[in-house]
Structure formats: C-alpha cells, structure tokens
Automatic annotation (TrEMBL):
Monomer. This is Phosphoenolpyruvate carboxykinase [GTP]. The lineage of its organism: Bacteria, Bacillati, Actinomycetota, Actinomycetes, Micrococcales. It is an enzyme of class 4 (lyase). Residues 1-34 are annotated as: Disordered. GO terms for cellular component: cytosol. Pfam families: PEPCK_GTP, PEPCK_N. It is found in: Cytoplasm. Residues 263-617 form the Phosphoenolpyruvate carboxykinase C-terminal P-loop domain. InterPro entries: PEP_carboxykin_GTP_CS, PEP_carboxykinase_C, PEP_carboxykinase_GTP, PEP_carboxykinase_GTP_C, PEP_carboxykinase_GTP_N, PEP_carboxykinase_N. Binds 1 Mn(2+) ion per subunit.
Length: 623
C-alpha cells in the first residue's frame, strides 16, 4: 500500500489550545488522540485493503486533482463553463438514486432502544456482517480520510467526525456540505470527540477490471451504532446514504447525543423573518423529505416590507440557553455548510434564490443535460428544451413519456453562495427560536395554518405529521404515511423516548418556549389542483405566524388550535376565491375526528407518552 498523502503534521500540541474545546463536554466514540485516529484508519485499511490512502486536507490543490480524476473516469461531466462555471453533472447508477430506508439500521444494544419505527439489528451480528462486507471492499480503490466538522469549526456547538470513503464523489460533496479537512482534524487533535464513519461503495476492482462512472453495490447497508456513536455505510454513493455527516451523523447519531445532553437535533430549515417594522422572528420548520424545506428557507417575500434571511435548509441543532433577560430559549444552529437540494420544481418562478445560488460551483446529480452543456430538470422552465440527454444518458425529447431528470435529482452547492444567506449564519451562538412549524403534503383535511395552543398540543401536532411519500426515499410516491416530526427515517432511538424528550425540553423552557404551528401548502381541490399558490406566496402565512408570535394579529379558536379568520391573512392580489380561502382555513369536524382517531391509533402503536394521548383525547372531545 502506498500513501499518496501522508497524514498532515499535527498543527498544535494536544495539550494547550487556543480554542475553547469544552473540557466538560462528554466524549463520545473513540478517544481523540491522533494515535487513535491513525490506529483506526490503519484498522479499516487492513480490512478494506485499498490501493492508496489519501488524507483530505480541504485545500484547493487536492480538490482540483480529485475533480480532474473524476472527470477522467467519467464520474463527473464538466458543464459548459460559460453557462455554468466550475460545475459538474454526475449520473448515478439507476438503482442508486435515493435513501434506502429498508436498508437503514439502528444497532442499539436492545431492540427496545431502537423502538418500533427503526430497523433494529443485533450490534454483534451486524459487526460480523460488516466485517464480511468490508473485507477487501476497497481493493483497487483509494481510501480517503475526510475529517469534518458539523457546525462552524470554532463553535462550541460544533461536533466532529471522520469519514473514511472510497468515493471521490463523496469527498467532493462533503467538502461542500461540511467543513472538511485540516481545520477539523486540528480540533480532533486538540481533544474534541469525534464520530468514526466508514463508507464504501462496495465495488472492489480487480487488476483487469475497468471502473464504471458510478460504482455501487445492489446490496446496501446504512448502519448506526448509537451507543458507540459510530456509522458504517456500504453499497451506495447517494447523498443521504453516503455523505455521512448529514442524515447519519447530524440527525441519527446527533439525536441520541442530544437526548443524553438535553438538546434537539432536527430535520428542519431555519430562517430569520423581519417584519416591515423591523421586528425579527426566528423560525424553524420540519417538513418530510422533498416537502418544501429548501424552498421555504429561500423564500422571496411577496408582501411589501417583509424580508427573509436563510440560515439553514435541512438540519437544525437547538439547545436551551438562558438569555440576559433570565428567560431560557432554544438557540439554533445549522450544522451544515451547503445545500443538497431537490432539483425538480426549482425554477426562476418558484425559487429564484436557489437559481441564483446555482450559477456556479455546483455538483448536479441525475439532472438532464442540454445540448449546449447546461442542466435542465422538470419545472426549471415551463417549456422543456426540444432535445436533452436524460439522467441516464439517453436522448430525450418532450414526447419521450418519461421525465428527463430523475424526480429525486439533486444539486450540491455551498450555502455561502446563497444570496439570501444571513450575514451571521455561521454565528457560533446560534439564533433564539420564536416559532417551530410542522407540515407535510396533505391534499385534504389539514388547514393552511394552525397555531397549537400549548407546547404539548404542538408536540402532538409534530407527532401526528403525515405526508404523501416523495421520491427522496425508495417507496411508492403519493402514498400517505405517518412521519412524526419529519424524523421517521432519522431518529436514532425509540420514538416514544424522542417524544418524551420533546415534552421534557418544553417543560424546561417554560415561557421561553417557541410557539408551534402546523402548515400545509399542499391542499388540493377535487380536480387535483393546489388550492394555495405556495412558494413566495407562503410569505402571507409566515407573516401571520410572525404576527401571532408578536401578538398583533387575530385568529379563531378551533379544537385543533387557532386558525386565521379570513381577514387575518393578507391575501391581496392572489386572486384567491372566497370559497378556496374558506376551504384552506376550514377545520371539518367529521374529517378531523377521523384524522385524530387514526393519529391516536398510531401514537398507541408508538407507545407515545400518555400526556400526548391525553392531549389528543381533549381535542377529540372538543370536536
Ligand atoms: N405546490 C408547492 N410545491 C412546493 C412548495 N414548496 C416546495 N415545493 C416543491 O416540493 C419539492 C421539494 O421541495 P424542497 O424544498 O426541495 O424539499 P425539502 O423539504 O428541502 O427536501 P429534502 O431535501 O428532501 O429534505 C420541490 O419539487 C418543490 O418545487 C410549495 O409551497 N407549494
Ligand atoms: O438525505 C438526503 O438524501 C436528502 C434529504 O435531505 C432527505 O432525503 O431528506
Ligand atoms: Mn432532508
């Protein structure tokens, strides 16, 4: 084995540190001295038998070399530099296009700790399986060592990991999505705890084998050891399965750390809304995958005087902290550094902010290629180009009868490029949260917006999220499924304990707790047409929410919380009929009794805390 890059020299002594590496922070996973990192990399290399080991330093020179290599192997297709500078298209294997929830495992010591919503496997058995799978898995390939930080490297809230991967696409993507390289390794050297995360595409190469542009394995394993804070991923190169800082670490493992330490790791966007009077409201929102987080995070307000700044689009970590006024509030940070966003539906009409963010420096995956070397996907423009190369590399014309881009095609781009990014988005202290939104794709029953009357009622709202399935994960698109807190695929421990933890955090916050709302942009009429225009026009709902937090706008009380009176919502210029508005704000008692009965049965299945089931019974009684 030849080391192309040696591990970087230690930048500081392990003892003295200029950073405030919290000495009181519990350490997780492997002890954090460099020797332990080297020993771990050595063990994985002995097992997986790569041809080379490369330590990723995060610098430009190494990155450019990596990109050049991927272009030469066909993994990345350079786009036309005049139209889309510094940007590339990757086409995945057609069987490796989304998260694989049925192959995602939580290996806690007991099945009960994983709970009824997770695939549990016995940790010892799984370790044996993994040892077999990874034996020689990297033969003929390069093993990359990617130290990374979730959260700004110098933030006291930052958490560290090291991903070992044999995929250069993963290395390049981690560079966008996390702070990866030497700075993160220096913090680990200084004593910060780190999560070991091992990834292989599971496609070793023999001496005479020719590589393919997107190596992967039909057999996939996305494995978490919550007690050990450890991640193993095999067989897939797709974002949510392979960029291990994201769902695996920042949600599944972090949710367990958060439970133990009294904070929350959530599948949420984060924005700052400023009213015409200059009043600031910080809002986090949990919607299931491909249900509008990125779009709301980049909202371009359509009401005069309002502005929205982006802080995050997919993951929020939030911790209670007492302010100068003696009130304890949740303070929120975005642990990511980039966006891994859904391409279809993103256009100059629907999300101009995203379109501006995507002007350069993007890795696109599974979108279509235009004849002039740019990218296209359904919804980018109202009319498709006359000819394209589709996501599988085949000729495509508008009459092809199939989408040109995969429905879960994605862009990977640095958050710093987003024009609406708040100037202080990397503030290590985070922002104080005023409101939390829960939502999903609900063609009927669920009103445009509802305010929960208490923290408990809000937790019930989050626990009862149901949404039509999207292409973000394997499964039948459109099917309604329960997705508590939009965290069904991302909670690293038993969902009942997760719900209890939410209730507990709320009790600790008391009067400083954010207000909780339910939203639904996706209500349809009998003809299947969206009743609500959505996108930028969601401003009107956000304005009501911000004004409710400030106590300056009305609402009417219903058994499921407060909804706006038609006059409370500014819908001027929308051309919305009175009947449509009434339907959007309607709480139908018959439909809601059925809805809550179903939710109650589900909570029973989850063994949800009794307090939630009581809150639900109160609502049913009021109906
Ligand atoms: N009708 C309607 N569609 C929307 C709205 N907001 C987003 N969408 C569509 O929903 C799809 C997914 O939206 P995203 O914002 O990327 O979803 P996300 O929640 O960030 O998804 P993940 O990255 O998978 O977690 C896109 O096709 C959007 O065009 C809306 O307000 N109304
Ligand atoms: O993780 C991914 O692959 C993309 C994502 O945000 C999701 O599915 O929620
Ligand atoms: Mn997501």
């Amino acid at each position: 084995m030849t080391a192309t890059y040696l591990p970087p020299a230690r930048s500081r002594s392990g003892a003295a540190t200029s950073h405030e590496v919290a000495a009181d922070r519990p350490t997780h996973g492997t002890p954090s001295r460099r020797d332990d990192v080297l020993a771990w990399v050595g063990r994985i290399a002995d097992l997986a038998q790569p041809d080379r080991i490369v330590w990723v330093d995060g610098g430009d020179a190494q990155h450019e070399l990596l990109v050049r290599e991927m272009v030469s192997t066909g993994t990345l297709l350079p786009l036309n530099p005049e139209l889309r500078p510094d940007s590339y298209l990757a086409r995945s294997d057609p069987g490796d296009v989304a998260r694989v929830e049925s192959r995602t495992f939580i290996c806690s010591p007991t099945r009960a700790e994983a709970g009824p919503t997770n695939n549990w496997r016995d940790p010892a058995e799984m370790r044996q399986t993994l040892a077999g799978l990874f034996d020689g898995a990297m033969r003929g390939r390069t093993l990359y060592v990617v130290p990374f930080s979730m959260g700004p490297v110098d933030s006291p809230l930052a958490r560290f990991g090291i991903e070992i991967t044999d995929s250069p696409y993963v290395v390049a993507s981690m560079r966008i999505m996390t702070r990866s390289g030497a700075a993160a390794l220096a913090r680990i050297d200084d004593g910060a705890a780190w999560v070991p995360a091992v990834h292989s595409v599971g496609a070793p190469l023999g001496p005479d084998d020719v590589d393919v542009p997107w190596p992967c394995n039909p057999e996939k394993y996305i494995v978490h050891f919550p007690a050990e804070r450890e991640i193993w991923s095999y067989g897939s190169g797709y974002g949510g399965n392979a960029l291990l800082g994201k769902k695996c670490f920042a949600l599944r493992i972090a949710s367990v750390i958060a439970r133990d330490e009294g904070w929350l790791a959530e599948h949420m966007l984060l924005v700052r809304v400023t009213s015409p009077e200059g009043r600031r409201t910080h809002v986090a929102a949990a919607f299931p995958s491909a249900c509008g987080k990125t779009n709301l995070a980049m909202l371009r307000p359509t009401l005069p005087g309002w502005s929205v700044e982006t802080l995050g689009d997919d993951i929020v970590w939030m911790a209670p902290r007492e302010g100068d006024d003696g009130v304890t509030r949740l303070h929120a940070i975005n642990p990511e550094a980039g966006f891994f966003g859904v391409a279809p539906g993103t256009g100059w009409e629907s999300n101009p902010t995203a379109m501006e963010t995507l002007r350069r420096g993007v890795i696109f995956t599974n979108v279509a290629l235009t004849d002039d070397g740019d990218v296209w996907w359904e919804g980018q423009t109202s009319q498709p180009p006359a000819h394209l190369i589709d996501w599988q590399g085949r000729d495509w014309t508008p009459d092809a009868g199939r989408p040109a881009a995969h429905p879960n095609s994605r862009f990977t781009v640095s958050a710093a490029q987003c024009p609406t990014m708040a100037a202080d988005w990397e503030d290590p202290a985070g922002v104080p949260l005023d409101a939390i939104l829960f939502g999903g794709r609900r063609p009927s029953t669920v009103p445009l917006v509802t305010q929960a009357d208490s923290w408990e009622a809000g937790v019930l709202l989050g626990a009862s999220i149901a949404s039509e399935r999207t292409a973000a994960a394997e499964g039948t698109v459109g099917e309604l499924r329960r997705d508590p807190f939009a965290m069904l695929p991302f909670t690293g421990y038993a969902v009942a304990d997760y719900l209890a933890h939410w209730l507990e955090v709320g009790r600790g916050l008391g009067t400083g707790a954010p207000a909780i709302f339910g939203v639904n942009w996706f209500r349809k009429d009998d003809g299947g047409r969206f009743l609500w225009p959505g996108f930028g026009e969601n401003t009107r709902v956000i304005a009501w929410i911000a004004d409710r937090v400030a106590g300056t706008v009305g609402g009417r009380s219903t058994p499921i919380g407060h909804v706006p009176n038609p006059g409370d919502l500014d819908v001027t210029g929308l051309g919305l009929s009175e009947a449509d508005l009434d339907e959007l704000l309607d709480v139908d008692p018959v439909a809601w009794r059925a809805e809550l009965t179903r939710a109650g049965a589900y909570l029973e299945e989850l063994r949800a805390p009794a307090a939630l089931r009581r809150a639900l019974d109160v609502a049913i009684d009021r109906l």
